[in-house]
Amino acid sequence: MMLPQWLLLLFLLFSFLFLLTRLSPTKYNLLDLKEVCIRNQDCQTGCCRRVPDICESHCAEKGSEGSLCQTLAFFGQYRQCPCLQNLTCVYWKSEKWSAIAYGRCEKIGRQKLAKKMFF
């Protein structure tokens, strides 16, 4: 029994579309730690860290207390990941270059922050 040509073409078209949707990355398909990335939005942690010695970028964890940090991304990547949510990137004024600053992650209490702002 032979199938009509249009039915066979229709089947091939739907098969191709099915495979195309399964293979294409979606916005929910985020990369794990140490996987190669292109920009911060590719990673689950939100940090695509460029290693200075090699020409690769990998997904990395955000900075914990005392670790190096960076305030802004440069071309969608970091040299040092920003701090975790409850920490702040503290840097010396001399360490600030343009809008990008490098510092260390520290926990700052509300009183310390208010004192620093007003005095």
TrEMBL record:
Entry GO MF terms: enzyme activator activity
PROSITE patterns hit by this protein: COLIPASE_2
Keywords: Signal
Top-rank lineage group of the source organism: Eukaryota
GO terms (BP aspect): digestion; lipid catabolic process; response to food
Signal peptide residues on this chain, from the entry's feature table: 1-23
UniProt keyword Acyltransferase present: no
An example Gene Ontology CC term for this record: extracellular region
Protein name: Colipase like 1
